[in-house]
Design a protein that fits this description.
The complex is a heterotrimer of chains A (245), B (79) and C (114).
Chain A (H helix, E strand, L loop, with lengths): L2 H23 L11 H14 L4 H9 L1 H29 L12 H23 L8 H17 L9 H29 L20 H29 L5
Helix pairs in contact in A: 3-4, 3-8, 4-7, 4-8, 5-6, 6-8, 7-8
Chain B lengths: L2 H19 L3 H21 L3 H30 L1
Chain C lengths: L3 H18 L4 H22 L22 H32 L13
Helix pairs in contact in C: 1-2, 2-3
The chains are: A mainly alpha (245), B mainly alpha (79), C mainly alpha (114).
Chain lengths: 245, 79, 114
Protein backbone atom coordinates (compact mmCIF):
# COMPACT_ATOMS: atom_id res chain seq x y z
CA UNK A 1 0.00 0.00 0.00
CA UNK A 2 1.70 3.17 -1.10
CA UNK A 3 1.96 6.20 1.10
CA UNK A 4 -0.54 8.24 -0.89
CA UNK A 5 -3.22 5.55 -0.61
CA UNK A 6 -2.54 5.32 3.11
CA UNK A 7 -2.97 9.07 3.58
CA UNK A 8 -6.25 9.14 1.65
CA UNK A 9 -7.54 6.18 3.63
CA UNK A 10 -6.58 7.92 6.88
CA UNK A 11 -8.43 11.07 5.82
CA UNK A 12 -11.60 9.12 5.04
CA UNK A 13 -11.42 7.15 8.29
CA UNK A 14 -10.80 10.30 10.33
CA UNK A 15 -13.70 12.09 8.65
CA UNK A 16 -16.02 9.25 9.62
CA UNK A 17 -14.63 9.26 13.17
CA UNK A 18 -15.03 13.02 13.36
CA UNK A 19 -18.64 12.90 12.24
CA UNK A 20 -19.43 10.19 14.79
CA UNK A 21 -17.76 12.14 17.57
CA UNK A 22 -19.59 15.36 16.68
CA UNK A 23 -22.92 13.55 16.84
CA UNK A 24 -21.94 11.99 20.17
CA UNK A 25 -20.73 15.26 21.61
CA UNK A 26 -23.91 17.11 20.69
CA UNK A 27 -25.75 14.88 23.16
CA UNK A 28 -23.69 15.99 26.12
CA UNK A 29 -24.94 18.54 28.62
CA UNK A 30 -24.42 22.06 27.28
CA UNK A 31 -21.17 23.67 28.34
CA UNK A 32 -21.61 25.27 31.74
CA UNK A 33 -24.34 23.08 33.11
CA UNK A 34 -22.73 20.52 35.35
CA UNK A 35 -25.30 17.96 36.41
CA UNK A 36 -23.34 15.25 38.17
CA UNK A 37 -23.61 14.65 41.90
CA UNK A 38 -19.99 13.94 42.80
CA UNK A 39 -18.66 17.48 42.62
CA UNK A 40 -21.45 18.75 44.86
CA UNK A 41 -21.00 15.88 47.29
CA UNK A 42 -17.29 16.58 47.56
CA UNK A 43 -17.83 20.32 48.04
CA UNK A 44 -20.17 19.64 50.92
CA UNK A 45 -18.28 16.85 52.58
CA UNK A 46 -14.54 17.47 52.27
CA UNK A 47 -14.03 20.52 54.52
CA UNK A 48 -15.72 18.69 57.37
CA UNK A 49 -14.23 15.26 56.89
CA UNK A 50 -10.67 16.14 55.97
CA UNK A 51 -10.24 19.68 57.35
CA UNK A 52 -8.93 20.81 54.00
CA UNK A 53 -10.27 23.39 51.58
CA UNK A 54 -8.36 22.09 48.57
CA UNK A 55 -10.87 19.76 46.95
CA UNK A 56 -8.58 18.77 44.09
CA UNK A 57 -5.73 17.71 46.40
CA UNK A 58 -8.19 15.80 48.57
CA UNK A 59 -9.53 14.03 45.49
CA UNK A 60 -6.10 13.22 44.09
CA UNK A 61 -4.58 11.93 47.30
CA UNK A 62 -7.46 10.71 49.38
CA UNK A 63 -10.77 10.01 47.68
CA UNK A 64 -9.21 8.85 44.40
CA UNK A 65 -5.78 8.00 45.80
CA UNK A 66 -5.80 4.63 44.09
CA UNK A 67 -5.76 6.28 40.66
CA UNK A 68 -2.81 8.41 41.78
CA UNK A 69 -0.93 5.33 42.89
CA UNK A 70 -1.37 3.87 39.41
CA UNK A 71 -0.40 7.08 37.64
CA UNK A 72 2.66 7.47 39.83
CA UNK A 73 3.78 3.97 38.93
CA UNK A 74 3.30 4.78 35.24
CA UNK A 75 5.66 7.71 35.76
CA UNK A 76 8.15 5.48 37.54
CA UNK A 77 8.01 2.87 34.79
CA UNK A 78 8.45 5.45 32.04
CA UNK A 79 11.52 6.84 33.80
CA UNK A 80 12.92 3.32 34.18
CA UNK A 81 12.28 2.67 30.49
CA UNK A 82 14.08 5.84 29.47
CA UNK A 83 17.05 4.95 31.63
CA UNK A 84 17.17 1.40 30.29
CA UNK A 85 17.03 2.51 26.65
CA UNK A 86 19.60 5.27 26.93
CA UNK A 87 21.97 3.49 29.25
CA UNK A 88 22.19 0.57 26.85
CA UNK A 89 23.42 2.99 24.25
CA UNK A 90 25.97 4.50 26.55
CA UNK A 91 27.46 1.20 27.53
CA UNK A 92 27.71 0.03 23.93
CA UNK A 93 29.79 3.02 23.09
CA UNK A 94 32.11 2.66 26.03
CA UNK A 95 33.44 5.54 28.04
CA UNK A 96 34.34 8.21 25.50
CA UNK A 97 36.64 11.08 26.34
CA UNK A 98 35.42 14.01 28.39
CA UNK A 99 33.12 16.13 26.23
CA UNK A 100 34.07 19.60 25.15
CA UNK A 101 31.32 22.09 25.56
CA UNK A 102 31.67 25.81 24.99
CA UNK A 103 31.51 27.82 28.20
CA UNK A 104 28.17 29.60 28.51
CA UNK A 105 28.12 33.38 28.45
CA UNK A 106 28.51 35.38 31.62
CA UNK A 107 24.86 36.43 31.57
CA UNK A 108 23.65 32.83 31.35
CA UNK A 109 25.94 31.76 34.14
CA UNK A 110 25.01 34.67 36.41
CA UNK A 111 21.25 34.56 35.94
CA UNK A 112 21.07 30.76 35.87
CA UNK A 113 23.21 30.32 38.92
CA UNK A 114 21.30 32.95 40.85
CA UNK A 115 17.93 31.40 39.99
CA UNK A 116 18.64 27.80 40.99
CA UNK A 117 18.13 28.47 44.70
CA UNK A 118 14.83 30.36 44.32
CA UNK A 119 13.50 27.70 41.93
CA UNK A 120 14.19 24.96 44.47
CA UNK A 121 12.49 27.01 47.18
CA UNK A 122 9.52 27.65 44.88
CA UNK A 123 9.22 23.94 44.17
CA UNK A 124 9.32 23.11 47.88
CA UNK A 125 6.69 25.79 48.58
CA UNK A 126 4.31 24.52 45.89
CA UNK A 127 4.66 20.94 47.10
CA UNK A 128 4.25 21.60 50.81
CA UNK A 129 1.27 23.94 50.44
CA UNK A 130 -0.51 21.53 48.11
CA UNK A 131 -3.40 21.07 50.50
CA UNK A 132 -3.98 24.81 50.94
CA UNK A 133 -3.34 26.45 47.55
CA UNK A 134 -3.28 25.30 43.94
CA UNK A 135 -0.29 23.16 43.15
CA UNK A 136 0.70 20.00 44.92
CA UNK A 137 3.12 17.18 44.33
CA UNK A 138 2.93 16.96 40.55
CA UNK A 139 3.40 20.63 39.68
CA UNK A 140 6.02 21.23 42.38
CA UNK A 141 7.90 18.11 41.39
CA UNK A 142 8.25 19.20 37.76
CA UNK A 143 9.50 22.62 38.87
CA UNK A 144 12.03 20.94 41.15
CA UNK A 145 13.23 18.69 38.36
CA UNK A 146 13.72 21.76 36.23
CA UNK A 147 16.16 23.16 38.78
CA UNK A 148 18.70 20.55 37.75
CA UNK A 149 18.33 21.60 34.14
CA UNK A 150 18.82 25.23 35.13
CA UNK A 151 22.02 24.31 36.96
CA UNK A 152 23.30 22.58 33.85
CA UNK A 153 22.35 25.48 31.57
CA UNK A 154 24.14 27.87 33.89
CA UNK A 155 27.32 25.95 33.33
CA UNK A 156 27.68 24.57 36.83
CA UNK A 157 29.74 21.46 36.59
CA UNK A 158 27.01 18.98 37.37
CA UNK A 159 28.99 15.80 37.35
CA UNK A 160 26.56 13.72 35.41
CA UNK A 161 29.15 11.33 34.13
CA UNK A 162 30.21 10.15 37.50
CA UNK A 163 28.16 7.16 38.59
CA UNK A 164 27.29 8.76 41.92
CA UNK A 165 25.04 11.47 40.49
CA UNK A 166 22.78 9.23 38.45
CA UNK A 167 22.60 6.69 41.23
CA UNK A 168 21.55 9.43 43.65
CA UNK A 169 18.77 10.55 41.32
CA UNK A 170 17.55 6.99 41.02
CA UNK A 171 17.54 6.60 44.80
CA UNK A 172 15.60 9.83 45.23
CA UNK A 173 12.97 8.76 42.74
CA UNK A 174 12.65 5.31 44.26
CA UNK A 175 12.27 6.83 47.72
CA UNK A 176 9.40 8.97 46.52
CA UNK A 177 7.59 6.10 44.84
CA UNK A 178 8.17 3.84 47.81
CA UNK A 179 7.01 6.60 50.14
CA UNK A 180 3.64 6.86 48.49
CA UNK A 181 3.21 3.09 48.46
CA UNK A 182 4.17 3.00 52.14
CA UNK A 183 1.50 5.61 52.79
CA UNK A 184 -1.07 3.40 51.12
CA UNK A 185 -0.05 0.37 53.11
CA UNK A 186 0.11 2.48 56.26
CA UNK A 187 -3.54 3.27 55.75
CA UNK A 188 -4.24 -0.42 55.52
CA UNK A 189 -2.36 -1.19 58.71
CA UNK A 190 -3.49 1.76 60.80
CA UNK A 191 -7.07 2.26 59.76
CA UNK A 192 -8.22 -0.91 58.07
CA UNK A 193 -8.48 0.37 54.50
CA UNK A 194 -5.68 1.08 52.03
CA UNK A 195 -5.01 4.78 51.51
CA UNK A 196 -7.27 5.67 54.40
CA UNK A 197 -6.37 8.99 55.95
CA UNK A 198 -4.89 7.89 59.26
CA UNK A 199 -2.87 10.84 60.54
CA UNK A 200 -4.44 13.45 62.83
CA UNK A 201 -6.49 15.94 60.88
CA UNK A 202 -5.61 19.16 62.70
CA UNK A 203 -7.36 22.46 62.09
CA UNK A 204 -8.17 23.56 58.58
CA UNK A 205 -5.82 26.00 56.73
CA UNK A 206 -2.86 25.24 58.98
CA UNK A 207 0.24 23.73 57.43
CA UNK A 208 0.00 20.53 59.43
CA UNK A 209 -3.58 19.56 58.71
CA UNK A 210 -5.61 17.20 56.54
CA UNK A 211 -3.83 14.06 57.70
CA UNK A 212 -1.95 12.14 55.05
CA UNK A 213 -2.63 14.65 52.25
CA UNK A 214 0.50 16.82 52.75
CA UNK A 215 2.60 13.71 53.36
CA UNK A 216 1.35 12.23 50.10
CA UNK A 217 2.08 15.50 48.32
CA UNK A 218 5.68 15.46 49.57
CA UNK A 219 6.18 11.84 48.49
CA UNK A 220 4.81 12.54 45.04
CA UNK A 221 6.83 15.75 44.75
CA UNK A 222 10.04 13.87 45.53
CA UNK A 223 9.21 11.17 43.06
CA UNK A 224 8.23 13.46 40.20
CA UNK A 225 11.28 15.68 40.74
CA UNK A 226 13.51 12.62 40.78
CA UNK A 227 11.90 11.21 37.63
CA UNK A 228 12.12 14.46 35.65
CA UNK A 229 15.71 15.08 36.77
CA UNK A 230 16.67 11.49 35.95
CA UNK A 231 15.18 11.62 32.46
CA UNK A 232 16.78 14.98 31.72
CA UNK A 233 20.12 13.77 33.06
CA UNK A 234 20.04 10.66 30.88
CA UNK A 235 19.18 12.69 27.79
CA UNK A 236 21.92 15.19 28.59
CA UNK A 237 24.43 12.40 28.96
CA UNK A 238 23.42 11.21 25.54
CA UNK A 239 23.77 14.67 24.03
CA UNK A 240 27.09 15.24 25.78
CA UNK A 241 28.84 12.07 24.70
CA UNK A 242 30.52 12.46 21.37
CA UNK A 243 31.51 9.84 18.90
CA UNK A 244 35.15 8.80 19.32
CA UNK A 245 36.89 9.99 16.18
CA UNK B 1 -19.54 30.76 27.81
CA UNK B 2 -17.58 33.96 28.32
CA UNK B 3 -15.71 35.72 25.56
CA UNK B 4 -12.39 34.85 27.20
CA UNK B 5 -13.18 31.14 27.13
CA UNK B 6 -14.30 31.29 23.51
CA UNK B 7 -11.11 33.12 22.54
CA UNK B 8 -8.92 30.62 24.36
CA UNK B 9 -10.72 27.69 22.74
CA UNK B 10 -10.33 29.07 19.24
CA UNK B 11 -6.67 29.93 19.91
CA UNK B 12 -6.03 26.37 21.13
CA UNK B 13 -7.66 24.91 18.02
CA UNK B 14 -5.66 27.12 15.65
CA UNK B 15 -2.31 26.60 17.38
CA UNK B 16 -2.95 22.86 17.59
CA UNK B 17 -3.46 22.76 13.84
CA UNK B 18 -0.24 24.74 13.39
CA UNK B 19 1.66 22.25 15.55
CA UNK B 20 0.57 19.38 13.34
CA UNK B 21 1.19 21.36 10.15
CA UNK B 22 4.78 22.27 11.07
CA UNK B 23 6.81 19.45 9.65
CA UNK B 24 10.28 20.40 10.82
CA UNK B 25 10.68 19.06 14.37
CA UNK B 26 12.99 21.87 15.43
CA UNK B 27 10.39 24.53 14.62
CA UNK B 28 7.68 22.31 15.96
CA UNK B 29 9.30 22.34 19.41
CA UNK B 30 8.82 26.11 19.61
CA UNK B 31 5.22 25.94 18.39
CA UNK B 32 4.56 23.16 20.91
CA UNK B 33 5.74 25.50 23.66
CA UNK B 34 3.24 28.12 22.51
CA UNK B 35 0.54 25.44 22.34
CA UNK B 36 1.24 24.57 25.97
CA UNK B 37 0.89 28.22 26.92
CA UNK B 38 -2.45 28.54 25.09
CA UNK B 39 -3.66 25.37 26.81
CA UNK B 40 -2.77 26.71 30.24
CA UNK B 41 -4.61 29.98 29.48
CA UNK B 42 -7.65 27.87 28.57
CA UNK B 43 -7.37 25.86 31.77
CA UNK B 44 -7.23 29.05 33.83
CA UNK B 45 -10.31 30.43 32.11
CA UNK B 46 -12.34 27.34 33.07
CA UNK B 47 -11.38 27.72 36.73
CA UNK B 48 -8.73 24.99 36.94
CA UNK B 49 -5.59 26.54 38.50
CA UNK B 50 -3.94 23.26 39.52
CA UNK B 51 -4.09 21.89 36.01
CA UNK B 52 -2.85 25.19 34.56
CA UNK B 53 0.18 25.14 36.89
CA UNK B 54 1.09 21.62 35.88
CA UNK B 55 0.64 22.41 32.20
CA UNK B 56 2.85 25.51 32.41
CA UNK B 57 5.61 23.60 34.19
CA UNK B 58 5.44 20.63 31.84
CA UNK B 59 5.01 22.57 28.63
CA UNK B 60 7.88 24.93 29.34
CA UNK B 61 10.37 22.63 31.09
CA UNK B 62 9.88 19.06 30.00
CA UNK B 63 8.58 18.95 26.42
CA UNK B 64 10.75 21.47 24.53
CA UNK B 65 13.93 20.45 26.36
CA UNK B 66 13.49 16.75 25.68
CA UNK B 67 12.57 17.33 22.04
CA UNK B 68 15.67 19.49 21.52
CA UNK B 69 17.91 16.97 23.25
CA UNK B 70 16.53 14.10 21.17
CA UNK B 71 17.03 16.12 17.99
CA UNK B 72 20.60 16.99 19.01
CA UNK B 73 21.35 13.32 19.50
CA UNK B 74 19.83 12.33 16.17
CA UNK B 75 21.57 15.12 14.33
CA UNK B 76 24.93 14.34 15.86
CA UNK B 77 24.64 10.73 14.90
CA UNK B 78 23.96 11.75 11.34
CA UNK B 79 27.25 13.63 11.14
CA UNK C 1 -22.09 28.04 20.83
CA UNK C 2 -22.32 25.87 23.86
CA UNK C 3 -20.78 22.90 22.05
CA UNK C 4 -17.70 24.88 20.95
CA UNK C 5 -15.57 23.37 23.69
CA UNK C 6 -16.47 19.83 22.71
CA UNK C 7 -15.94 20.57 19.01
CA UNK C 8 -12.47 21.93 19.76
CA UNK C 9 -11.67 18.71 21.61
CA UNK C 10 -12.84 16.62 18.66
CA UNK C 11 -10.84 18.78 16.23
CA UNK C 12 -7.67 18.45 18.28
CA UNK C 13 -8.06 14.68 18.34
CA UNK C 14 -8.60 14.45 14.59
CA UNK C 15 -5.68 16.78 13.83
CA UNK C 16 -3.36 14.96 16.22
CA UNK C 17 -4.16 11.51 14.85
CA UNK C 18 -3.81 12.79 11.27
CA UNK C 19 -0.39 14.15 12.17
CA UNK C 20 0.63 10.79 13.64
CA UNK C 21 -0.52 8.84 10.58
CA UNK C 22 1.10 11.07 7.97
CA UNK C 23 4.28 11.84 9.87
CA UNK C 24 7.70 11.62 8.27
CA UNK C 25 9.81 12.10 11.37
CA UNK C 26 9.54 10.21 14.63
CA UNK C 27 9.95 13.32 16.78
CA UNK C 28 7.18 15.09 14.84
CA UNK C 29 5.03 12.03 15.53
CA UNK C 30 5.58 12.28 19.29
CA UNK C 31 4.60 15.95 19.38
CA UNK C 32 1.44 15.28 17.35
CA UNK C 33 0.58 12.56 19.86
CA UNK C 34 0.84 15.24 22.54
CA UNK C 35 -1.72 17.33 20.66
CA UNK C 36 -4.11 14.37 20.59
CA UNK C 37 -3.62 13.96 24.35
CA UNK C 38 -4.49 17.63 24.86
CA UNK C 39 -7.91 16.96 23.36
CA UNK C 40 -8.79 14.73 26.31
CA UNK C 41 -7.83 17.44 28.76
CA UNK C 42 -10.07 19.97 27.02
CA UNK C 43 -12.98 17.52 26.93
CA UNK C 44 -12.66 16.57 30.60
CA UNK C 45 -12.44 20.13 31.86
CA UNK C 46 -15.31 21.24 29.63
CA UNK C 47 -17.54 18.55 31.09
CA UNK C 48 -16.82 19.60 34.64
CA UNK C 49 -17.36 23.33 34.16
CA UNK C 50 -20.25 25.12 35.81
CA UNK C 51 -21.21 28.64 34.70
CA UNK C 52 -20.38 31.35 37.18
CA UNK C 53 -18.65 28.98 39.59
CA UNK C 54 -15.27 29.35 41.23
CA UNK C 55 -12.20 27.13 41.35
CA UNK C 56 -12.65 24.22 43.80
CA UNK C 57 -10.38 25.61 46.50
CA UNK C 58 -12.02 26.97 49.64
CA UNK C 59 -9.04 29.06 50.71
CA UNK C 60 -10.68 32.43 50.95
CA UNK C 61 -14.16 31.97 49.56
CA UNK C 62 -17.18 30.92 51.56
CA UNK C 63 -17.86 27.22 51.62
CA UNK C 64 -21.28 27.64 50.11
CA UNK C 65 -20.16 29.21 46.82
CA UNK C 66 -20.74 26.92 43.84
CA UNK C 67 -17.54 25.38 42.53
CA UNK C 68 -16.61 23.47 39.40
CA UNK C 69 -16.11 19.74 39.52
CA UNK C 70 -12.84 18.72 41.25
CA UNK C 71 -12.88 15.09 40.11
CA UNK C 72 -12.14 15.83 36.44
CA UNK C 73 -9.46 18.30 37.50
CA UNK C 74 -7.82 15.60 39.57
CA UNK C 75 -7.81 13.24 36.57
CA UNK C 76 -6.39 15.88 34.23
CA UNK C 77 -3.74 17.06 36.70
CA UNK C 78 -2.03 13.71 37.05
CA UNK C 79 -2.41 12.98 33.37
CA UNK C 80 -0.58 16.14 32.23
CA UNK C 81 2.60 15.24 34.07
CA UNK C 82 2.50 11.51 33.40
CA UNK C 83 1.93 11.86 29.67
CA UNK C 84 4.95 14.16 29.41
CA UNK C 85 7.06 11.40 30.92
CA UNK C 86 5.63 8.86 28.50
CA UNK C 87 6.53 11.23 25.65
CA UNK C 88 10.08 11.22 27.01
CA UNK C 89 10.07 7.43 26.79
CA UNK C 90 8.88 7.62 23.18
CA UNK C 91 11.65 10.09 22.36
CA UNK C 92 14.21 7.72 23.86
CA UNK C 93 12.77 5.00 21.61
CA UNK C 94 13.10 7.32 18.62
CA UNK C 95 16.77 7.95 19.43
CA UNK C 96 17.42 4.21 19.67
CA UNK C 97 15.50 3.54 16.44
CA UNK C 98 17.62 6.09 14.65
CA UNK C 99 20.70 4.31 15.85
CA UNK C 100 19.50 0.90 14.68
CA UNK C 101 18.04 1.81 11.32
CA UNK C 102 19.89 5.01 10.47
CA UNK C 103 16.65 6.81 9.69
CA UNK C 104 13.86 8.54 11.59
CA UNK C 105 11.31 8.17 8.86
CA UNK C 106 8.56 5.82 10.09
CA UNK C 107 8.07 4.52 6.55
CA UNK C 108 11.62 3.20 6.50
CA UNK C 109 11.57 1.36 9.80
CA UNK C 110 10.94 -2.15 8.61
CA UNK C 111 12.20 -4.29 11.43
CA UNK C 112 10.64 -7.53 10.37
CA UNK C 113 13.46 -8.76 8.24
CA UNK C 114 13.81 -12.46 7.60
Amino acid sequence: MSRRVRCVLALVALAVLGATLVVAVAELEPFGRYPGPYGDVLAKVVPGERHSGQLVAATVLDYRGFDTLGEELILFTAACGCVALLRLRRRERGEASAPERPAPSFAARAVGGALVGPVVVLAAYVVIHGHLTPGGGFSGGVIGGGALLLAYAAGQQVRLRRVGSIAMLETVEALGAGGFAALAIGGLIAAGATLQNFLPLGTSSMLLSAGTIPVGNVAIGIEVAGAVALIVAEFLEQALLQEPT
Amino acid sequence: MTALQATCLIAVAIIGTLVVATRDPLRQAAVAGIFGLALSALFLSVQAPDVALSQIAVGAIVVPVLVLLALAKIREHDR
Amino acid sequence: MSVLAYLVAVWLLIAGVYGVVTSRHLVHLVICLGVAQASTYVLLLAIGYRSGAQAPIFGDIAQSTPVVDPVVQALTLTDVVVSATVSALLLALAVQAHKRFGSVDPDELNALRG
